[in-house]
Amino acid sequence: MTAKTKVVVTGVPRPPLAQLDELAGFGVATAHEALGRIGYLGPELRPIQQGVRVAGSVVTALVWPGDNLMIHAAVEQCAPGDILVVAPSSPCTDGYFGELLATSLASRSVRGLVIDAGVRDTAELREMGFPVWSRHVSAQGTVKATAGAVNVPVVVGGQVVRPGSVILADDDGVMSIEAADLPRAIEASKAREAKEQATREALAGGQLGLDRYNLRPLLKELGVEYVPYEEHHE
Ligand SMILES: O=C([O-])CC(=O)C(=O)O
Ligand SMILES: [Mg+2]
Fold first, then answer.
1. Could you give the ipTM of this predicted complex?
2. Rounded CA gap, 5 and 166, in Å?
3. Where is substrate bound in this sequence (predicted)?
4. Which numbered ligand comes closest to the C-alpha of 130?
């Protein structure tokens, strides 16, 4: 945690919406590879919906276990194109967030929620079409009693997520991108998409990965032998 724990930081600068929209054209797997495999928040942050991809500017809420007071404070700091990232100060599975808070965020054109804890009302959230990625789903509610922080750096899935940075999230999970890396993330993702398209066409045409990636010499070097079935007794 940072030195100042009871703080709401206002006026965080945000990347241009057009850049966020461009990033949203790429999958998390693509952008993650393109940036050199950094910033993935891990496989345990799962979407409650399927088939949704969002990119947005980060507003953070640092909350106490079982207490969603600072989520309410964070909602006020959210603007169109944002994604709210919530992290508890220590692990907690409680359902901090549901359809009422989502209604509030949707009214501010917030693009989604990423929470390193639990959510509830998941059927309603899916019905509303409000995108959520969470570590847990839990009916257990929270109180509103303890001061935390809004728009301070938080840690989610072992990654530091800063206010004003960028989140890209889809069915494969969530990744965090530093604001300064956003243009590079877009360009590198474009280049990777082009490369993958060429590979896709070659594979669809019957070329094998073994040949496309020149893996036969590697198999040989590793001592892998090709043996007819009749000669291979185990
Ligand atoms: O009210 C809460 O504390 C969380 C919730 O269920 C909602 O936002 O609908
Ligand atoms: Mg509720």
1. 0.98
2. 23
3. 98-101, 120
4. 1
